[in-house]
Design goal:
The protein is of the alpha/beta class and 466 residues long. β4 and β5 form a beta hairpin. The protein starts with a helix and ends with a helix.
Length: 466
């Protein structure tokens, strides 16, 4: 059987993907209250779900960050269908969870619903036949993913998952430091202006030095967003590989990103040194909340934490700015976007009921869950404020957060076109990461790094096409 043959290689794929599945990784968050029910709901399928249906959802998301108890109870009360969450990592570690998911699938466990945390992991597992195409269900309901959601999950012309949360990347700002330097909260800025802010915010020397910014990657082939800063704010071609699997490392914005990183660390000395990040195993949350860095470029999964947690309390005012653009004439708002990909298992015996839950969860279910800004485009601007209020209410000091700047940033954010991940993308990531380390540690210059990265990427591409 073809599917079984594919799964002989699943464990290898899980290891390959480990470096890719960063972004929403392990952290404990204070649980907030659930948000009010939606004022409007998504269109429902023509038939009601059958009673006494029990679905099993395999997820990386723990109770504290996904509020499963209240969310799934609401669905059961609405439909009579029970959904059992199989939490694959108690601490929300996506790498650990995906390895366990691969093993569960290889063992042919009774899996009805799957959650993926990043586009590469989603695309890779779709290629392995894990997810059921949803196009027939969607056609029956009569909507388009691109119209109903802010993230288009279409891969190779088909839809295999619906997006849950909408977590664009943004910039967290220590507003007290900005006020001290006489700098306004940016609403439209470039990476050059970001670098200028970082330089002005840097203060002190030695172990007590305060850096203008902290970049949490790359690390071991993961957190590669930090080597694509000036690629990720484009509408298309945002990765090291193009949609056809060929190299995109000749994109001038790749080299521009390297120039930015080197200038900020080596010349301006305004970003935390890469050697410190790796040798000291620094954590981005600590760097920002301990005020060791004034700016943090990160995903808006931090919404549930920016008001402070019991582990990392907030003792200063926080503002939010959009992901910077490259040139003044560019459109502001394009950014990498993290979402949850809710998919129906290809081995489920209850695919229609699983789809109905996926559709509910990614629409009004997101409002019931009350933990994230939904990717559902039917959420209005007026509805966004109470959603943010609910999210911030789960933090220790929401009054210290500039809510207006947060909402404005989220409203202007938009996702770039999704690029299907080639099976060898993780190999390319690892190679580029290794070449970057040579660059930033002074063992080669930028031109050499670009050429060596291109050469190694091409070798990987060629070897995988044999």
């Amino acid at each position: 059987m073809i599917m079984r043959n594919k799964w002989l290689n699943v464990m290898v794929v899980g290891i390959m993907l480990a470096g890719l599945l960063a972004g929403c990784g392990g952290n404990d968050k204070k649980e907030g209250s659930t948000s009010p029910a939606a004022s409007s709901s998504a269109a429902e399928s023509s038939s009601e779900p059958a009673k006494n249906v029990h679905l099993r959802l395999y997820t990386f998301g723990p109770e504290a960050t996904y509020n499963w108890s209240a969310t799934l109870k609401a669905y059961e009360e609405k439909t009579g269908v029970t959904v059992e969450p199989i939490v694959l990592s108690d601490k929300g570690d996506t790498q650990e969870a995906m390895k366990k998911l691969d093993l569960a699938f290889a063992s042919q466990e009774a899996i009805d619903l799957l959650m993926f945390s990043d586009p590469a992991g989603y695309a890779q597992r779709v290629s392995l036949g894990m997810a059921e195409p949803l196009d027939d269900f969607i056609a029956k309901e009569g909507f388009k993913v691109a119209d109903d959601y802010k993230v288009d999950t279409t891969l190779n012309g088909k839809v295999y998952a619906l997006p849950g949360k909408f977590n664009p990347w943004y910039v967290l700002l220590n507003k007290d430091h900005l006020d001290e330097a006489g700098l306004p909260v940016p609403t439209d800025w470039t990476w050059d202006e970001y670098a200028d802010y970082a330089k002005q915010l840097t203060k002190g020397e030695g172990t007590s030095k305060r850096y203008g910014t902290y970049f949490h990657g790359p690390q071991g082939g993961g957190w590669m967003e930090f080597l694509k800063l000036m690629m990720l704010n484009q509408p298309t071609n945002t990765d090291f590989l193009k949609a056809d699997g060929s190299s995109n490392l000749a994109d001038p914005n790749f080299k521009r990103t390297l120039e930015l990183r080197v200038r900020m660390e080596k010349t301006d000395k305004s970003s935390v040194p890469y050697s410190d990040i790796i040798s000291q195993k620094l954590a981005y949350r600590n760097q920002f909340f301990n005020q060791s860095a004034s700016m943090l470029t990160i995903g808006s999964w931090m919404n549930t934490e920016i008001g402070g947690t019991d582990k990392l309390p907030l003792t200063f005012h926080v503002a939010v700015a959009p992901f910077p653009k490259n040139d003044k004439a560019d459109t502001i708002g394009y950014a990498p976007v993290a979402t949850d990909y809710m998919a129906v298992s290809s081995i489920s015996k209850q695919k229609e009921e699983a789809y109905k839950f996926a559709r509910w969860y990614t629409t009004e279910g997101q409002l019931v869950q009350g933990k994230n800004v939904p990717a559902w485009s039917k959420v209005t601007n007026d509805q966004l404020t109470p959603i943010i209020d609910t999210i911030l209410a789960g933090t220790m000091n929401p009054e210290l957060v500039d809510k207006d700047s947060l909402i404005k940033t989220l409203l202007m954010s938009k996702a770039s076109e999704m690029i299907p991940a080639a099976s060898y993308l993780s190999e390319v990531y690892k190679a580029v990461n290794e070449e970057y380390e040579k660059l930033i540690l002074g063992n080669q210059d930028i031109d050499a790094m670009v050429k060596n990265s291109q050469d190694r990427a091409q070798q990987i591409i060629d070897s995988n096409k044999k």
